[in-house]
Amino acid sequence: MSDKQYDAIIIGGGHNGLVCASILSKKNKKVLICEARETCGGMANQEIINYVPSIPNSVSQSIGGLNLKYNSKGTIALSESGKHIRLIGNLHLDHATISKFSTQDADRYLQFHDKMSQFSKTLGKFMMDSPPRIMNNSLSDYAKLLKLGLNVRMLGKKKFNEFARMIGLNIADELEDNFESTLLQGLIAHDSVLGSNLGPRSPGSLINLLYRMAIHGNSLFGGIYEMDGGSESLISALIEKCKKSNVEIKTSAFVKNCIVEDDKAIGVELHNGEKIFAKTVISNTDPRSTYFSLLGAQNLDTDVKRRIKHHRSKGRVAKLTLKLNKMPEFNDCDEIDLNSRMVISPSIDYIEENFNPSKFDKLSSEPVLEMCMKKDEASAPFLDIQVQYAPYKAHGGWENIKNDYINSIIKIISKYSSNIESCIDSKAFITPDDIEQDYHISGGHWHHGEIQIDQLFMLRPIPGAAQYKTHLDGLYMCGAGTHPGGGMHGISGKNAAKVVLGDL
């Protein structure tokens, strides 16, 4: 039994946990991070993450500045014909690029981007703070609700009605109404369903796009960055901040359960039997793990148990990493193109046909792919491939079908690169099931739960726990399963720290 008393114990040393710890320690709180793996970082690991949006200034300032260097990356929609569309987030240049294919689409792209940007900015105003509690008699919650309503209403009557209409809309209808290029439609639709269990024709896929824009700078394709040193440089910077402010980090420390006394969380018990006590416990793991593993079903009332049980958190993204012996050649792609985020989603129908089998835990023979080349002079190049609609538990079992599926992915890439097969030295494949086992994330979901309207804002992860507080006094959450959701931005960690500080 530890004789130390902490102000806060944070379970999980992912980026949100590190952000939360750094902010708390800056306020002279004694903080301990318990990380189950041998190193901190969680899924902010180059094994998983290829590129990340830049950390918002508000998060960086709360920590004390991170001094990270980012390199902007464009996005290229690959076409078998070689007539690719490459967008960089500069509206003037993107308009000129699209004009080569369709002047009508180019003009409508500016109109579409302006509308979506306006709506995402409205949503973005509520990302940096704890959402209001529903049906709570708190003046501060009433004020937040009023502010939310006023900001939406200030769009004007016409745009307000359009915004309300779009909340439940699918992205396919909106794109088909605006654009004639199926390749452009497919590219935008791809980012609307990325990492979700939605198809382009699924209700709510449009709000998913608005959410992504709100988090990542209100631009369709201008919020993609490659961090010098990879995402691990972010983790290194956060760990350094924590160490400078005397945060204790305990690795290989798997938390078995939360210690509860008099209906209050008072510490944690590790798998080795060690008990550590604190005024507060903050979980950086996913909601299902927090409630069912740390608390235990016996400590939950029926309604909470039911809501957590039905919390949708089955992962739908796998990752294939190809170690190469030379740089591959992609049809009509130059060096700038190869340094871009390359997407294979040639049409809305292509994506939808990929989505349909996944509903039955089956695999598409022509998967939707997102690729990123990693290369430097000191090592061999790598091609990192994120595979959309890879089921959590594949029909037939991943071990039995994995090799055939990898070959089908390479076959698809071969349509765009004539020499990719001859470039491959080795392959590494990570399924959602692997992520669950290796990173202790329920369902292997990158975002700790679906990004959908009924699991966002005041409803994330469930009603009554959307303000970083669980249903148990003294137990908080700071991970991607909380508002505003997944992504390498650290907002959840920042917001949670603010709530905890208000209660300590």
Describe the structure.
With 504 residues, the chain is of the alpha/beta class. It folds into 3 domains: 5-69 and 228-312 and 448-503, FAD/NAD(P)-binding domain, CATH 3.50.50; 85-224, no CATH class; 317-439. The protein is 38% helix and 18% strand. It contains 18 helices and 16 strands. The strands form 3 sheets. Strands 1, 2, 7, 8, 9, 10 and 16 form a 7-stranded mixed sheet that branches. Strands 5-4-12-13-14-11-15 form a 7-stranded mixed sheet, with helices on both faces. A two-stranded antiparallel ribbon has the order 3-6. α8 crosses α9.
Topology:
Layout: E1 5-11, H1 15-26, E2 31-34, H2 57-63, E3 70-72, E4 75-77, E5 85-87, H3 91-99, H4 103-124, H5 139-153, H6 157-166, H7 171-178, H8 182-193, H9 205-215, E6 225-227, H10 231-244, E7 248-250, E8 255-261, E9 264-270, E10 275-283, H11 287-295, H12 302-309, E11 317-324, H13 335-338, E12 341-344, H14 348-358, E13 369-376, E14 379-388, H15 398-414, H16 420-423, E15 424-430, H17 432-439, E16 475-477, H18 491-503
Parallel strand pairs: 1-2, 1-10, 2-7, 4-12, 10-16
Antiparallel strand pairs: 3-6, 4-5, 8-9, 9-10, 11-14, 11-15, 12-13, 13-14
Helix pairs in contact: 1-10, 1-18, 3-4, 4-9, 7-8, 8-9, 8-14
- N-to-C CA distance: 24 Å
Count of individual helical segments:
18
Number of domains: 3
Under the CATH scheme, which architecture of the largest domain would be assigned? Answer: 3-Layer(bba) Sandwich
Determine and state the CATH class of the largest domain. Alpha Beta
Strands, total number: 16
* CATH T-level topology of the largest domain: FAD/NAD(P)-binding domain
The rounded Rg comes to 23 Å
User: What kind of oligomer do you see?
Assistant: single chain
Low-confidence stretches: none
Silhouette:
globular
The name of the CATH superfamily of the largest domain reads FAD/NAD(P)-binding domain
Q: What is the helix content? A: 25-40%
Calculate the mean pLDDT score and round it: 89
The structural class is alpha/beta
Proportion of beta-strand residues: 15-25%
Biggest sheet features: 7 strands, mixed
